[in-house]
Write a structure and sequence with these properties.
The chain is of the alpha+beta class. The chain has 2 domains: 119 residues, no CATH class; 216 residues, Thrombin, subunit H, CATH 2.40.10. 20% of the residues lie in helices and 27% in strands. The chain is elongated.
Length: 477
């Protein structure tokens, strides 16, 4: 019998991979979380970049808006003015004019005397030498900016090393001040240094107190170009102003008015007369015209009219008196015995700007109505480069003399003086600059007002305003 095979045993090993699977699942979960984190960071970076782009675009828009506003903004001209260094002295609106003691100056005088029938042959050009023998100081009062003004004295120094001039300035609070509020003295050196203008303060004086002189040292003297001893000698040359009103300190006093206050003016006497134009400059009855309008001979001596009358277009003419006059400048200031609510204000002038001229020309031929002529500023100097005059193209005739030249702001920029007559002269006319007239007013302590070139007005309105302060001046021989 065959033998039965014995059963074979089979061995196997059962492995438990649950922990491995759990580990793998953990790794996969971590990888998934890391992927989500990376995606979150990428999204955050994109959001930051997008916000930065928006911010940059906003800044760019703001810069473009600022640039556009800057390009469209009006351009203002800045004028730099160099002011000499002084000791604690406010900036004063003054003009100091110094003329050598004896200078021969050719002056062109235009004879524009009125007759009943105009005769061009009577208008001639006569050149005569004029000798000026004193220094004229003319402060300008700017009303509304600073009511104080100053006078100056200048002495040329010889025999003191390094010192060329010694100047004294006196500041007055008003024309009626009994004495200068403050004075200062400084030296002007001969050599050029780092010090602007090479000025050195020597001393000051306040009110009626005694002068206080500066204690100078070697450093000051060396920088100035002199010595302490010489500068102390120069300080003794400070010619201080006296304790009295400004109009009585070396200035020409104003003549009293020839019109008695409170008495009515008598009608003018019949006789020969000439006419011109003038305009009021303040509310106290002061008006300005040409000197030759109130002169009976038009030469180098003052020959005043026997009487002067003002015709403002009303039925009653008013008598005027001469307050001051200047042959060289051809200016005269008159006054009536009444208040004048309508008066001119002065402004700046530019070459090429449009102007109008008001006046009473050729009244014997054209009549008594005021005439208006248009033109423009041709040049800011007159014949032979005279800086006291300006040239304009508004035709001037006998009778226009002394009238106002007005700009498009309604402000006076000149006082009509004369026109050149002859076939070779085409529309060449001259007026006294407003700044020259202001200097003359300031020297004689006569108030005036400055206007502002801010708003242009229609020329018809300029004429209407000008008619209220422009008058006819009648000179009886």
């Amino acid at each position: 019998m065959a033998e039965k095979p014995s059963p074979k045993s089979i061995e196997y090993v059962e492995n438990d991979f649950s922990s491995l699977n759990t580990h793998v699942d953990g790794i996969l979960y971590n990888e998934k979380q890391i992927s989500r984190l990376k995606k979150y960071r990428v999204d955050r970076i994109r959001i930051i970049q997008f916000a930065a782009i928006i911010l940059l675009l906003g800044l760019l828009a703001i810069m473009l808006a600022i640039a556009y506003h800057w390009l469209k903004a009006p351009v203002y001209k800045t004028i730099e003015v160099e002011i000499p260094r002084v000791v604690e002295v406010p900036v004063i609106q003054t003009v100091e004019v110094e003329i050598p003691k004896v200078v021969e100056v050719p002056v062109i005088e235009y004879i524009t005397k009125i007759e009943y029938v105009p005769d061009p042959a009577k208008s001639i050009v006569e050149e005569v030498p004029v000798y000026i023998e004193k220094i004229i100081r003319g402060p300008i009062q700017i009303v509304g900016v600073n009511d104080t003004f100053s006078f100056f004295r200048t002495e040329e120094i010889k025999g003191i090393d390094g010192v060329r001039l010694v100047k004294v300035g006196a500041s007055y609070e008003s024309t009626s001040s009994p004495f200068p509020e403050k004075q200062w003295c400084y030296a002007v050196g001969k050599q050029k240094t780092m010090n602007t203008g090479n000025h050195l303060d020597l001393g000051t004086k306040t009110g009626k107190n005694r002068p206080i002189y500066k204690s100078l040292n070697q450093s000051d003297a060396k920088e100035f170009g002199s010595s302490v001893e010489d500068l102390n000698r120069a300080a003794k040359r400070c010619n201080w102003f006296a304790d009295r009103p400004p109009t009585n300190d070396g200035q020409e006093s104003l003549p009293p008015s020839s019109i008695e206050s409170g008495k009515p003016s008598l009608p003018p006497k019949a006789g020969s007369y000439g006419t011109g134009t003038g305009f009021f400059i303040n509310s106290d009855g002061y008006l300005v015209t040409n000197q030759h309008v109130v002169d009976t001979k038009d030469n180098n001596t003052i020959d005043a009219c026997s009487s002067i009358w003002i015709d403002d277009g009303t039925q009653n003419k008013q008598q005027a008196s001469i307050i001051n006059q200047n042959i060289k400048l051809d200016l005269a200031v008159l006054r009536i015995n009444n208040k004048t609510p309508n008066y001119a204000k002065f402004g700046n002038v530019r070459s090429g700007e449009n102007i109008i001229q008001l006046g009473f020309p050729l009244t014997g031929l054209l009549g008594e109505e005021m005439r208006v002529t248009n033109g423009s500023i041709s040049a800011l100097s007159g014949i032979r480069g005279d800086k006291n005059l300006l040239q304009h193209s508004a035709p001037s005739h006998p009778g226009n003399s002394g009238g106002p030249i007005l700009n498009s702001y309604g402000l006076v920029v000149g006082v009509v003086r004369s026109g050149m007559v002859g076939e070779e002269y085409q529309n060449i006319n001259f007026a006294i600059k407003a700044t020259t007239a202001q200097n003359f007013f300031g020297k004689n302590a006569i108030n005036f007002e400055m206007g502002e070139n801010t708003k242009r007005i229609e020329m018809e309105d300029v004429v209407e305003a000008g008619k209220k302060f422009t008058v006819k001046v009648i000179c009886y021989n």
